[in-house]
Amino acid sequence: MGRAWGLLVGLLGVVWLLRLGHGEERRPETAAQRCFCQVSGYLDDCTCDVETIDKFNNYRLFPRLQKLLESDYFRYYKVNLKKPCPFWNDINQCGRRDCAVKPCHSDEVPDGIKSASYKYSEEANRIEEGEQAERLGAVDESLSEETQKAVLQWTKHDDSSDSFCEIDDIQSPDAEYVDLLLNPERYTGYKGPDAWRIWSVIYEENCFKPQTIQRPLASGRGKSKENTFYNWLEGLCVEKRAFYRLISGLHASINVHLSARYLLQDTWLEKKWGHNVTEFQQRFDGILTEGEGPRRLRNLYFLYLIELRALSKVLPFFERPDFQLFTGNKVQDAENKALLLEILHEIKSFPLHFDENSFFAGDKNEAHKLKEDFRLHFRNISRIMDCVGCFKCRLWGKLQTQGLGTALKILFSEKLIANMPESGPSYEFQLTRQEIVSLFNAFGRISTSVRELENFRHLLQNVH
């Protein structure tokens, strides 16, 4: 019996050694692990972790936010896609049909939105009519003294320097309404030197980076360049480091959208759009990008927290009884405002918001200068969007930079928001309809990106 038992143990040992020799004790790493193994746990400069964001966004926020963005108020965005590039003249316009944007005919846009394109409520419509009359030299005696004062305050606000973006003149003949649902953000084939130049200028000239510090993968490869770049980045103050991470997060989010809505099949019968895991891997795989991909995804989560925090801060502005999501349809407008407030209260309940109190908290004069540099750099990035050669990419680039700029404006206006009157015009803090539409649609894009990451995790589980 003892000999039999010993023989069995020996055979098991031989089998184990054979498996060890063939490397079967360790399964090959999957593509999902290479893309996401570092995209977990706590985020740098934050007290929040990735898993909490995933759960909150994908199951509590995303479905309701998508419903809101499908409403008339949020689906129509007025934009000027014909503005010339202010930085260079040799723009190669994308001739691909998927780069084109189809603007709305006048009768497709609800009358309430067209008349309230500059402001956002029925009362604002009357004020705008007063502005137009004033420009024509007319006197509208039906406007009260308080309303006339509001006109002057709004004009002052709209011309002020608190904006983080170069705003389109939506009164320009070149400005047109676009239905965002009919012109979705997706892969258009716009790439190569022209697309590369856009992002290169953004990173190299607007992210507080000296020319001597090269971004990883920007030119050539090698760990030394990566180490030099991240040593430099960690040495920055928290505000400048956050600026870089916001831009990187926006870039990552756009790449997620392009990978998730990729043209998989194009025949005379149909076009098929869907998830392209190979494209996603090229942009985010830890090995293929020499570690850059997972960092980009972590920056996407950082951007999510910044925009989430801004939405939680701006709740009092939307809670005021005078505020309407005005389209002219009173029933739908009331329902949409109720849904908007429901979403904002849900956001307010998020337990691990980003703490922006560390921003610009040093010497008062230095903090003021840093904040102004921050604002001017971001305004410059918004101007670069007019240099994008693909019109659909330009549309979504302009909308998302304006949305992020509006979020930054909110974060730096906390005291003004706190001092708003409960009713009547808010003289100190104001948001135009364009800012509101871009703010929520931009966050909708980030929210969609986070949701799509869950889809890519599943798709890549069995890819090696």
UniProtKB/TrEMBL annotation:
Pfam annotation, one family: ERO1
Active-site residues, as the UniProt record annotates them: 390, 393
Segment forming the signal sequence: 1-23
Cellular localization per UniProt: Endoplasmic reticulum membrane; Golgi apparatus lumen
Protein name (database record): ERO1-like protein alpha
GO cellular component, as recorded: endoplasmic reticulum membrane; Golgi lumen
Species, as recorded: Mus musculus (Mouse)
Cysteine-cysteine disulfides: 94-99, 390-393
Biological process (GO), any one: protein folding in endoplasmic reticulum
Superkingdom to which the source organism belongs: Eukaryota
Co-factor(s): FAD
Membrane-topology descriptor: Peripheral membrane protein
